[in-house]
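Holo prediction — molybdenum atom.
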Amino acid sequence: MSRRRHYRACHLCEAICGLVIETSGDDIVSIKGDPDDPLSRGHICPKAVALRDIHEDPDRLRRPVKKQVDADGRVSWQEIGWEEALDTTARRLVEIRERDGVHAVGVYLGNPSVHNYGMLTHQGALFRHFRTNNRYSATSVDQLPHHLAAYWLFGHKSLFPIPDIDRCDYFLMLGANPIASNGSIWTVPDVKKRIKALTARGGKLVVIDPRHTETAELASEHHFITPGSDALFLLAVLNTLLAEDLARPRHLAAFVTGLEEVARDIRQFTPEFAAGHTGISAADIRRIARELAVAEAAVCYGRMGVSVQAYGALNQWLIQLINIATGNLDRPGGSLFTLPAVDQVRNTGPGGFGRHRSRVRELPEFDRELPVAALAEEITTPGEGQLRALFTGAGNPVLSTPNGRQLDEALAQLEFMVSLDPYINETTRHADIILPPTSPLEHDHYDIAFHINAVRNTARYNEPVFEPPAGALHDWQIFTELGNRVAALLGQEPQPASPPHAMIDMGLQHGPYQEQGLSLAMLRDNPSGVDLGPLQPQLPQRLFTHDKMIRCNSPEPLADLQRLQQAFQRPPGGLLKLIGRRHVRDNNSWMHNYRRLVKGRSRCTLLMHPDDMLHRDIEDGTLVTLSSRAGSVQVPVEASEAIMPGVVSLPHGYGHGRPGVRMAIASDHAGVSCNDVTDELALDELSGNALLNGVPVTVVAS
Ligand SMILES: Nc1nc2c(c(=O)[nH]1)N[C@H]1C(S)=C(S)[C@@H](COP(=O)(O)OP(=O)(O)OC[C@H]3O[C@@H](n4cnc5c(=O)[nH]c(N)nc54)[C@H](O)[C@@H]3O)O[C@H]1N2
Ligand SMILES: Nc1nc2c(c(=O)[nH]1)N[C@H]1C(S)=C(S)[C@@H](COP(=O)(O)OP(=O)(O)OC[C@H]3O[C@@H](n4cnc5c(=O)[nH]c(N)nc54)[C@H](O)[C@@H]3O)O[C@H]1N2
Ligand code: SF4
Ligand SMILES: [Mo]
């Protein structure tokens, strides 16, 4: 059989590494990094080769399945044809919509939906018929605070400033572990090499994290911080900059206002006040602020650890204000906006906040989505607008959202559920019908999401590696087919659908690089990608605020300062605080079914500091009960000096031992779900984002 080389970008995480895949007939012979990709320069991580495992996995569904329940309540799954699967789904969704109204139909979209461009371009074909208030996604267990900060300050939910690590001298990083995660809201393949280059040229990386992480290992300086107290640290840094007259917004001064008002409102948040709660000394906080101020090019960046906690939105807003006050926004070596070839910032709406609220708990929407922490109660609470049918796509909220156990039980009460997903997992086992799309290597790929966040402007389009099997449908085709059927049932005309690549071609030809002749044809000729150059200063033109101004005195986070101050007037509760953790061979909940990724020692352990173990009669390996208001799990302890005393850490995405999960290897490496302990009532009250880091817990030997 002759060998063929294929080019492909990895879609598994935000680093979007270029790959070269060699095949022989239907077999994958090798998967390697593509040295000619101008962004990833040959980098890959251990997950890239799992693309082969996904493709070949016998547990991956190839055809739609329908749930059968016999007289004794035993569940089995029957393969059905696409016509029946699509017809039934469309009919049931429309029936419930007609009977109970559009809000009775809910939608949850998970993380891989953003890595799959066909899902992004074509979901509207179905959802335009269901303009429901009950839209949910992984955003509200993740980056919602980043969207809000960008919306308040820059006028668009996705206008994220990106740390320009390759030209930076001083990097202050909070609550991120890119060595494990490969970067987030920061597409930065090969981050290890970039961090090493930063310190090798005399630059400094300061990491603030309750765990001495793999990233902290490479840092010039690491400080433990009490989970959930980062806002006090950031306020103290900003306060020092403003009070000591160190702020110098440089070119930003022409279009930035409101810093004086912020300076007034934050005066009481001193380094001394922060020191008492964060565990970082006032002297260190002042020094870090001064170092930031004098560095030639500096950046402050924070991710999951500061977003998905009690003050997520406040934190992300403060991080931007620090970059503005030091004049490092829109500056090489600071943080810069990208200019993606298909400009999904310009092509999508700016967002909006609080235009409607959830029915039961009155939580605010953002960009027409409600916080997913409200999903279970919207299903179980009777009354008008109660959620009766649910569509899930590329998501596993039973394992990924707070109090997943409660959601698990709620899903069982739905009248109809359909899942667009290749697996029968903890969530989709509740579906009546599962619609499996083609494997990732059977469809083409262009990344429309993550170029927005990339450290360099590049573009890359790749053809499918394999032809899809006869009759198989891509995610985008499933959306189109369902949309057409729903339209017919509602007496409407079907909408003509062009394939995703045609939409990308339009986006390229009408995008910011049209003068360079960028088009799909050009990308087809350059399968390793096209380099569009380093990030450039673009302000104020790139702003989406109506008058091209940045107003720092955003009223919502300023008002949130009161909540912060009140919370930290109370003495700390004395409970342990639970945080999460990622490992380079995990990917949220769905990549535990591939032997090469799960081999070795179990990673689903509770990290605990020896000092905390001592009082509790716990030894390394002891099985403990980890409990919160919401629930408890039993898990072995792993002693670690790398975790701050008073803090424990458990990775999320495990808990595959539930009955009915059809993922054989994952079930053998089941672990427990961290989100059986996280609490759906604990939120960043400002944004509605979940609080998954800093959950108060107890730990006792089982
Ligand atoms: N290998 C792998 N890569 C992934 C993923 C994966 O599951 N596995 N998931 C992908 C996804 S969806 C995302 S969103 C990204 C996430 O990317 P990152 O945010 O870089 O990854 P995390 O490991 O969650 O890092 C969060 C850090 O915050 C720390 N932390 C926890 N609580 C606090 C706190 O209160 N304050 C501070 N300062 N720090 C705190 C944790 O110890 C941890 O080191 O990773 C992506 N990449
Ligand atoms: N405690 C705690 N909880 C967390 C986090 C944490 O740090 N701590 N992190 C949060 C974060 S950042 C995120 S993003 C969420 C993730 O939460 P989710 O997005 O809900 O969950 P995933 O584990 O990513 O599940 C992805 C699903 O998509 C399916 N899938 C994979 N590829 C495709 C595809 O191409 N098409 C379709 N149709 N389906 C596909 C998989 O089979 C799987 O069912 O978890 C969150 N939960
Ligand atoms: S770092 Fe992310 S994009 Fe790169 S190979 Fe690994 S999983 Fe794929
Ligand atoms: Mo995420």
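READOUT: Residues 10, 12-13, 15-17, 44-45, 47-48, 182, 189 surround iron/sulfur cluster (ligand 3) (CB under 6 Å).
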